[in-house]
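Example (one chain per record):
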Amino acid sequence: MIRIDKVWLCAQPLDMRAGAERLLAAVVSTLGAAHAHHGYLFANARATRIKLIVHDGFGVWCASRRLNAGRFVWPSATATATVSLELTRAQFDALVVGLPWERLPEMNVITRM
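Predicted structure:
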């Protein structure tokens, strides 16, 4: 398995025809460097497809996912002040199946009946 220590969500939409080299260039131009064992997530403008690129220390891995219905919960590049956000493992797991990952802390507690 590929070891991923941190996952970064890159808010700027990207053309999903981009391959590993173009995704890597986007990471380097946005964040300054692609660190080993870090994953970087990108989405298209409609947030119906995502791509993950991981630098494993020797090379680059690229994976993609699309939802058959609906959209991924993705922050707007204009709404967020940062270009990228670090995700926890729980947030990443929720995001890739289309759940509202931004609301995980409040979803862990029931406050109304």
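Caption: Strands lie at 6-10, 38-43, 49-55, 60-66, 84-87.
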